[in-house]
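Pipeline run #58 for the internal structure catalog. This entry was flagged by the ingest filter as a single-chain record with no existing model, so it goes straight to prediction. Upstream metadata was stripped on purpose; only the residue string is passed forward. Reviewer on rotation: M.T. Logging verbosity set to normal.
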Amino acid sequence: MDARPLTQREQAVLEALLSIDFPNVEALRRQAADVLVVGTCGCGCPSIDFERGRGEGMTIEVNAGVRDSYDGLFLYTIGDPQRGDVLGGIEWTGIETPGLTELPSPDLLTIRPA
C-alpha cells in the first residue's frame, strides 16, 4: 500500500493515546505531526502501521479499552537503531465488534500507560 495521511478518526485516536504522560511521550508527540499510515491489517480490522519492516522490537506504550466492552487497542513503538523509539502503529484487539473497520471514537476509550 502507498503511504497515506491518517484519517480524522485515526488522528483523533492517536492524539488521545498521546495525551497521557509516559516516558518519551514528548518525542512521540512530535513524531505524530508527520506520521503516515504505511500498512493495515489483512483481516480488515482498523489496525494501522506507521513503520514498515524495520526496527528492533516492539514496545507497547499505551493501552486503551473501549468502555462497556472487551474491545481495546494499543499504541506501540519500534526501536530504530538511528532514531531511537519511533511510533510503530495502533493495534486493534477487539473481540466483541466483528467487522469493525474504523477505530472507535476517542471519547469511548479508557486510556492508561502500559
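catalog note: The longest strand covers residues 58-66.
catalog note: The radius of gyration is 13 Å.
status: ready for reviewer M.T.
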